[in-house]
Specification:
The protein is built from 12 helices and 11 strands. The protein is an alpha/beta fold. The chain is globular and about 60 Å long. The two termini are about 20 Å apart. Helix 6 links the parallel strand 5 and strand 6. The chain has 2 domains: about 120 residues, Enolase-like, N-terminal domain (Enolase-like, domain 1), CATH 3.30.390.10; about 250 residues, Enolase-like C-terminal domain (TIM Barrel), CATH 3.20.20. The structure holds oxaloacetate ion and magnesium ion (MG). One of its GO terms (molecular function) is D(-)-tartrate dehydratase activity. This is Mandelate racemase/muconate lactonizing enzyme family protein. Its cofactor is Mg(2+). Keywords: Magnesium, Metal-binding. It holds the Pfam family MR_MLE_C.
Length: about 400
């Protein structure tokens, strides 16, 4: 059993939107295919992965460092000791050969994307959905296929205006979402307040709004917003300050009693641990958004979940960034609190298998081998093109 080829293509996911920090006019991602010599249903098993929005394609680094390490390794060194399968943990160690500690963002996206494809292949070889495999190997044995999802959008679009924002948010509510998210910090506070209130006017009982500052604010601005946002009953106040400014995050707990969320730009267990140690996050109400696709993959995410447990945090406080099916599978298999979803953005990479509907804020994952990409026809077309 061996990996015979690994391919990468950098794909555009660009649009006119901007958040408080960046615009997405040149955004790309890496799509990866790990081709194996294992045959299932008469075809070679191919695992697929891609990175979430926000960090661009990673192809040159993959080709320079990570693909050669896997393809040049002794194939037997990548195999599971007890199962007839690849071992994602051994593959991860091989990928990380001669990589120094620290400085995680430089390579964590490349490794996380390859890791996603490896888990997809491993679950396909075992002939079951990844969520089932994860529940059996690392969870309580039984997945919960019903997963909470929220609709992320509400970016700053040229010329969208308040009515355009309301139309967008209403369309998410009409599609079955109970929580919608919009950006803040890309306009003056007064305008952001008007945008928030316009969305709040749409909400019916049981529906909520989250806001995301994308790490834009210094401490005084984050506090000013905290005071303004305290007037609304928000689902969460996300990433107020720089993702690595744990002191800012900790101080904000003195100014904002409602739930806060952060972590999408922390790219290793060690960085996540610093947030837990020093960021003043509150396990009874706050949310953690570490995204495996950007942070060394599921092998590392398992370490992060262990770290959280040691610090008294439940996996239910995790609602990952990124809107991909990999985190949906982890949520169903290991009991996370839910997953992000971008109903209209970054397609065809985000979203759910065809036919999966959002009902009262939840989706139910179908029984597809692997992560489930083959069930999403527009996405699978891109994947097949890469592999053929
Ligand atoms: O706008 C972005 O960079 C994405 C983001 O923060 C999110 O989905 O929470
Ligand atoms: Mg965010």
């Amino acid at each position: 059993m061996k990996i015979v080829d690994i391919r990468e293509a950098t794909k555009p996911i660009k649009s006119d939107i901007r958040n408080a920090y960046i615009d997405f006019s040149r955004m790309t991602l890496s799509l990866v295919a790990v081709v194996t010599d294992v045959v299932r249903d008469g075809k070679p098993v191919i695992g697929y992965g891609f990175n979430s929005n926000g960090r661009y394609g990673q192809g040159s680094m993959m080709r320079e460092r990570f693909f050669p390490r896997l393809l040049e390794a002794d194939p037997a060194s990548l195999l599971d000791d007890v199962r007839d399968n690849f071992d994602p943990h051994k593959i991860w160690r091989t990928l990380m050969t001669n990589e120094k500690p620290g400085g995680h963002g430089e390579r964590s996206v490349a490794v996380g994307t390859i890791d996603m494809a490896v888990w997809d292949a491993v679950a396909k070889i075992e002939g079951k959905p990844l969520f089932q495999l994860l529940a059996e190997r690392y969870g309580n044995g039984t997945p919960n296929r019903k997963v909470f999802v929220y609709a992320a959008g509400g970016y700053y679009w040229p010329g969208q205006g308040i009515e355009g924002l309301q139309r967008e948010m209403q369309s998410y509510l009409d599609r079955g979402y109970s929580v919608v998210k919009k950006k803040i910090g890309g306009a003056p506070l007064d305008e952001d307040r008007r945008r928030i209130e316009a969305v709040l006017r749409l909400l019916k009982p049981g529906q909520e709004l989250a806001v995301d500052a994308n790490g834009r604010f210094d401490l005084p601005t984050a506090i000013e917003y905290a005071k303004a946002l305290s007037n609304y009953d928000l689902f969460w106040y996300e990433e107020p300050g720089d993702p690595l400014d744990y002191a800012l995050q900790a101080e904000l707990a003195n100014h904002y009693a409602g739930p806060m969320a952060t972590g999408e730009n922390l790219f290793s267990m060690q960085d996540a641990r610093n947030l837990i140690r020093y960021g003043g996050m509150r396990p009874d109400r706050d949310w953690l958004q570490f995204d495996c696709a950007l942070s060394y993959g599921l092998v590392e995410y398992l370490r992060t979940l262990d770290m959280l447990k040691e610090h008294g945090w439940s996996p239910r406080r995790c609602v990952p960034h990124g809107g991909h099916q990999m985190s949906l599978a982890i949520a169903a298999g290991l009991g996370l609190g839910g997953n992000e979803s971008y109903p209209d953005l970054f397609q065809p990479y985000g979203g759910f298998p065809d036919g999966v509907q959002v009902e009262d804020g939840y989706v139910t994952l179908p029984d597809l081998p692997g992560i489930g990409f083959e069930g999403k026809s527009d996405l699978y077309r891109e994947m097949r093109d890469l592999a053929s």
